[in-house]
Amino acid sequence: MEWHAVAGLDDGVLELERPNTTPNPAVEVRETLPDGTEFKAVWSYLAQSGVAKLVTVHFFDRG
């Protein structure tokens, strides 16, 4: 669920900042679900509205 990515952002690890990404700056954050599953979330900053938007989530292969 989307709220897992939002809740996990507080404890996430910043992996990459992309301040010059067009049309909006973005960051990649490694996060963990409550069940321990790790994933990468890409967040974009929407300057006009002053909010961050979850762009996509990528789950890493286990195993």
Describe the SSE topology:
Elements: H1 2-8, E1 13-18, E2 26-32, E3 38-46, E4 51-59
Antiparallel strand pairs: 1-2, 2-3, 3-4
What do these coordinates show?
The mean pLDDT is 85. This protein is mainly beta and 63 residues long. Helices cover 11% and strands 49% of the residues. The protein is elongated and about 35 Å long.
Number of helices, where a helix is a run of at least 4 consecutive DSSP H or I residues? 1
> What is the chain-wise order of helices and strands?
HEEEE
Number of domains: 1
Q: Which value, in Å, is the CA radius of gyration? A: 12 Å
Structural class assignment: mainly beta
Major β-sheet strand ordering = 1-2-3-4
Q: How would you describe the shape?
A: elongated
Percent strand: over 45%
Q: Which runs of at least 5 residues are low in confidence (pLDDT < 50)?
A: none
Question: What is this structure, in a nutshell?
Answer:
The protein is mainly β and 63 residues long. It has one helix at residues 2-8; strands at 13-18, 26-32, 38-46, 51-59. The protein has 1 helix and 4 strands; from the N terminus they run H-E-E-E-E.
Any descriptors?
single chain, four-stranded antiparallel β-sheet, 63 residues, 1 helix, mainly beta
